[in-house]
Amino acid sequence: MTVIKDSVHDYIELEPTAEALLDTAPMQRLRYVRQLSTVQLVYPSANHTRFEHSLGVYHLASEAVDRLPIDDDLARRLRIAALVHDVGHGPFGHQTEAAIERHLGRHHDEIEWLLESTDLGRVLEDHGLDPEAVAATVDGRGPLGELVAGTLDVDRMDYLVRDAHHTGVPYGTIDHARLLYALEVVDGELALEEGNVATAESALIARTLMNATVYRHHVSRIAGAMLDRASERLLADGVVDPESFARLTDSDLLATLAEYERTAAFADRIRDRDLYKRAIWARRDAVPAAFRGLDYDRTRALEREIAEIAGVDPEAVILDSPGEPSSPESRARIVVDGELRRLEERSSLVAGLDACAREIWRLGVYAPESVLEPVGEAAATVLDLEDGANVRP
Amino acid sequence: MTVIKDSVHDYIELEPTAEALLDTAPMQRLRYVRQLSTVQLVYPSANHTRFEHSLGVYHLASEAVDRLPIDDDLARRLRIAALVHDVGHGPFGHQTEAAIERHLGRHHDEIEWLLESTDLGRVLEDHGLDPEAVAATVDGRGPLGELVAGTLDVDRMDYLVRDAHHTGVPYGTIDHARLLYALEVVDGELALEEGNVATAESALIARTLMNATVYRHHVSRIAGAMLDRASERLLADGVVDPESFARLTDSDLLATLAEYERTAAFADRIRDRDLYKRAIWARRDAVPAAFRGLDYDRTRALEREIAEIAGVDPEAVILDSPGEPSSPESRARIVVDGELRRLEERSSLVAGLDACAREIWRLGVYAPESVLEPVGEAAATVLDLEDGANVRP
Amino acid sequence: MTVIKDSVHDYIELEPTAEALLDTAPMQRLRYVRQLSTVQLVYPSANHTRFEHSLGVYHLASEAVDRLPIDDDLARRLRIAALVHDVGHGPFGHQTEAAIERHLGRHHDEIEWLLESTDLGRVLEDHGLDPEAVAATVDGRGPLGELVAGTLDVDRMDYLVRDAHHTGVPYGTIDHARLLYALEVVDGELALEEGNVATAESALIARTLMNATVYRHHVSRIAGAMLDRASERLLADGVVDPESFARLTDSDLLATLAEYERTAAFADRIRDRDLYKRAIWARRDAVPAAFRGLDYDRTRALEREIAEIAGVDPEAVILDSPGEPSSPESRARIVVDGELRRLEERSSLVAGLDACAREIWRLGVYAPESVLEPVGEAAATVLDLEDGANVRP
Amino acid sequence: MTVIKDSVHDYIELEPTAEALLDTAPMQRLRYVRQLSTVQLVYPSANHTRFEHSLGVYHLASEAVDRLPIDDDLARRLRIAALVHDVGHGPFGHQTEAAIERHLGRHHDEIEWLLESTDLGRVLEDHGLDPEAVAATVDGRGPLGELVAGTLDVDRMDYLVRDAHHTGVPYGTIDHARLLYALEVVDGELALEEGNVATAESALIARTLMNATVYRHHVSRIAGAMLDRASERLLADGVVDPESFARLTDSDLLATLAEYERTAAFADRIRDRDLYKRAIWARRDAVPAAFRGLDYDRTRALEREIAEIAGVDPEAVILDSPGEPSSPESRARIVVDGELRRLEERSSLVAGLDACAREIWRLGVYAPESVLEPVGEAAATVLDLEDGANVRP
Question: Which Gene3D superfamilies match (chains A, B, C, D) (predicted)?
């Protein structure tokens, strides 16, 4: 039994299949993809990677399946799916997710292509696991797939605790050990035992607070939006093909951006932390519904319109209008007074937390510091913002 | 400069006045009053005392006043009031508070009597402090008294973090350093700077979750109710006079109870953790409003009625119907978009947290295990409980 | 399966035998015996008890036996012995150990008498365990008894980590998880696997540093010496019989001391932290060998001699000359380059740590502040101390 | 006052000069240089960077100078030197230090060239600081320069605690707060106050244990030796000029190695963690003195000799024979019984720790797995190793 020391869970025991998988290139690559991508530009200690997170999720899955009444084969598939669950992430994780989806039509949870094109599939087969079943589990499908990706998944339990440890922000310290103790299988699906409404709420609260202070921090969002813009250029101009793009590491992407004339400026700005600033930063209730959660084409069209009015280069305007916040964990199943319910049915907090998520929603328009004012004015016109909508000048 | 090592805040620096106060008997006594009284019967590590908590509150007050634009005299008064703020607590802290109030007509925040009857007042005067002004500050009155007892007090910041450290329950880990950084004085009163709604909410959330899992745990409530009953007997029978009672330590009280015939059984039960059990444990919506938040006389009358119907000794029935939950921190002042507001006006979470507090409210009727059934039935009749009100048999 | 939350090991799972044992009075009593007795007078957060420590030792024993190739009966006996290993401690633990040994001729690891005179033995038998075998294991005898009391015991692993957590002193943070992983059985006895010299050294280092900063702190030693003196008086005068004495809690002892005229002054001084001071505090090399590690009678005779010369009451002089330091863990068995060795044979540090332990050794003579000078001078004469022996006036 | 959240020291307050320096490219570059270089290949959580470490050292320097009786100008110079002290590190820090010294004749503590060739010097001047004085302080020269680089420097205090936090190895948890409290200036130089021998020893112990388990782990040493070999090739072949080399980030270096034919194989092996293995791993007493601590030319000559005898490509043999261990902190000045001494004069542990450092010293010969045996045999002959010298086959 090999053991690895982890800063969050202390020792993690690895079964042979896990060891063999760790030795593959796609898993080793995760050492060079930061878990929180551009958040390190705000929280300098947040340099932990998807590699150590993957080990953590594997560990929690192991602890969970040890206590669940399931057979060894399923237990093993769940553990292994937990280990490889992030292998499909592109460089900078979520920050290039949209660009990859546009060009490959594929979400990071769909890893079938990787099983075929790398050693991963072969190693799984060598160890008696069905690659397709593992891939389905990574995507949350199949028996108890929700343990890996779903309303009660160990992915979230690990990242909340790990992100708290590495940023220094204390809000992610959920009681993951109790969540694991409370898991049971009811009608073939996961649920939390009686007496755990507060435990379940705490995970939802943790994510809400981490969103507000860490995950949705404007500096990280700006850097992410700049990466998306530059990545799109790279892919649209055919500098890198999408399959190769999806396998870059964080630094590979920065290096590739730096080498291409039309994206070099973005690379320099990110590397030197000389980022665009907020021309607009508007609360949800000040933004017309038509301009919330915009798709890619509409976003680009609006950016061009704003740039034209402001009299600036279209590259100098980035519009960032996220979709409505969602909280899958509020649909977690939980036993209350002997009956199986959804958390949102029994929790007095879920509605408040949803409101809170809408409260911290912001539409951003970013631009170089030198053109902030004209861009802000043009954007306010184009987006039909109310007076006073802009909470940050 | 003397420094003391603390398990939560590391080194705490003490000014000479603080050192001299620590050497008085009333402060040394706090070494023998557990911060969480009977909670150690549920969380065995929760043996921290009001002494170390007092040091912690002093430390946080020192950090706060160093950053506020106030004069040295006020700063010193606030620090010293923070240090002595718990000196008025009776044995087992909040668990004997009601009994002491009934017999002395005095809350633990009113410490004038201690300043006169012990060394405390003299030491304060010797160090150039006005005992009355310090006492007022402990009670939350006077300039910035709210730093010691109020909507943004350092008492709460310390106990949430400290109780988390010693119980092992992670929910109390608020970002107290950020709360201290965010404090400012607006129109002579404390407020939180712009950008801290989530910081303020986190403290409220922490208390709500700690209530649900720690402070309101039924085992601790039962032990507390038994202590109240036994203390009342001691005081009513004149075994101890109220002034002396208020100065006992936890173990003094247990020893005194053990020596008096009519209370010895309670002392044995608490010491051996052989507690009463729940005959009734009813949710708020199943309890008629008339039976929620009962005063002492009404409680005793109902207990007697239940005992009579059940055919048991009146000492065998304890009714515990707490008042409505309150959350002073929701009225904390905070700057939002340049205007001074109450947290509850700007937070989407406060209403949810209030609902949550009502959700975990429970009326309890406790009795020895041997008579649980008749007491439960009698209580359901007397309290006019709905069918199914009793969530724990 | 019942689980208990612990501040050090998080959740601890209890088997039914453990639960039943915890419900006995001798185990519940440990809630009122502080793990570090008088150390809280120096480190105010050090209020953790032998109860939570017992749970921690049980937990580590459980983790250890799960990995060792032993049968279920032995595993269970080891776990249960770990749980009850401290049940024989008197009030204030080690601080009254000598007095109890003088009057009962019994060390705290000998618990046979408790198994007979309390519920403990019956509960063990009811659960199919042989009380004598458990008692032998507590004393380090029988198969793998050294896991509970010996060179590689889990008692030490728990207390080093726990004392660090509660004092705030960081030196006790050994890698106990790695020590547990490294345990193996060689020729029927425990040993550490290849590659763990540094792991074993770290535990020895931790204890040496904790001795220097925590366990042997002079304030705690003075309070302990005062307790020993007062306890001896109580026992010699027959105020309490030795069997009853050994079952008191910390506060019981203080209360008993307070009630007896000849010991009341000691009780007041300890409670108010108004302790004797150091009249002499001498390094080992300045103390003639004949005066190091004195037995009881010789100590009392010397105290009387000092008191007479100084012209003070004999109660005003306490001589505290500890024995030579020992380090059982340096004899731990460890595999190095394929051979079984003692740690001291392979570690370059053991000799240095032994020297270090001798370095921090001190002979103390304590007295009330008002008579420090005459007592110090008399003691220097009587003990034939070198000039300059006294490092603290 | 800007504050930054750090995972180790919580909030770090930045003065304007520090903020301006952080905005320069040389400081931002440190975000992409891992503090522990290749250690992450063993401890996956060890991804913290020299950027966050620099903030931590700045923070500790600030705390230290606040308590020292020095003027504001010196205090500021010390703080700022602490902030920029690592700016001269090449990619992978210590792992390319030797290669840079061979080609530039410059140690990473000599940063004058950077002050001239980047914005750093200008920013220092703009804020009224003398770049040369700052550079001298970084190198440990000038008034109290030892606070930044010396026997009692804050660099070490930060990295021990930080490396422990991020690897999960508990041995680095020194009591840095107490070290800072204990600092005083005696005759113009730093010393520790009376009563701190154990405090000083603990830092030395921590480094010894961290060496044994983390810093000198063979996997990290092998990766480092491979990087040195590949870097030398890059520089010798003129692929990168030395000045540019010294400014690469970790990933820049890997990318550069990957692009050059003669080093691409090394880059692949490091990225996929497919490292050379140990053909020889010999204890100090089994290695003739002539082969310990070899210089570069001698090392290369011996490697070629081994390769020739083994019949393998010279690139397939790496010889790694480190110099004698040293411990600057053992010369720290400390007041003992009123006199100023060196720690090594008063500590019983220093000699043991030195022996311990020699004990964990190893000479390594590394080669691809397929040629381990012939290389091992040839190396044993060439290096005249005793039979049984090789502790790991």
Answer: Hypothetical protein af1432
The pLDDT of residue C392 is: 65
Residues of C in contact with B272 (CB under 8 A): 25, 28
Enumerate long-range contacts of C14-17, CB under 8 Å, 24 or more apart: C14/C58, C15/C76, C15/C79, C16/C127, C17/C76, C17/C80, C17/C123, C17/C124, C17/C127, C17/C129
Q: Which CATH number fits domain A218-324+360-382: 3.40.50, 3.10.50, 1.10.3470, 1.20.1250?
A: 1.20.1250
Distance CA C176, CA C200 (A): 10
> What sign results for the dihedral spanned by CA atoms D126, D131, D137, D138?
positive
pLDDT surpasses 70 at B392: no
For A246-266, the DSSP string reads HT--HHHHHHHHHHSTTTHHH
**The one-letter amino acid at D383:** L
Per residue in A198-227, pLDDT (tens digit) is 889 888 888 988 998 899 999 999 999 999
- CB-closest option in C11, C177, C178 to A181: C11
CATH class, range B2-217+327-357: mainly alpha
| Strand extents, DSSP E, D212-361 | 277-283, 318-320, 333-336, 339-342
CA of residue D274 relative to chain centroid, distance? 24
Report how far residue D353's alpha carbon sits from residue D327's, in angstroms, rounded to the nearest whole number. Answer: 9
Residues D222 and D275 sit within 8 Å (Cβ to Cβ): yes
Q: What is the ipTM of this complex?
A: 0.92
What is the pTM (predicted TM-score) of this model? 0.92
Rounded to the nearest integer, the mean pLDDT of chain A is: 93
Q: What is d(CA C296, CA C102) in angstroms, rounded to the nearest whole number?
A: 9
Could you tell me if A299 lies within 8 Å of chain B, comparing CB atoms?
A: no
CATH architecture of B220-324+360-382: Up-down Bundle (1.20)
Give me the count of residues in chain C: 393
Categorise residue A384: left if φ over 0, alpha if ψ from -120 to 50, beta otherwise. left
Structurally, what CATH architecture does the domain formed by A2-217+334-357 represent?
A: Orthogonal Bundle (1.10)
Q: Which fold has domain D218-324+359-382?
A: Growth Hormone; Chain: A; (1.20.1250)
pLDDT at A273: 95
For tokens 């890619």, what's the residue?
Answer: A296
Contact D168 A43 (CB under 8 A): no
Task: Give A4-34 pLDDT, tens digit per residue.
Answer: 999 999 999 999 999 999 999 999 999 999 9
Residues B10, D181: C-beta atoms closer than 8 Å: no
Token reading at D102: 């061979």
How far, in Å, are A120, A386, D138 from residue D67 at the CA level? 57, 52, 21
Task: Match 């508007």 to its residue by tokens.
Answer: A282
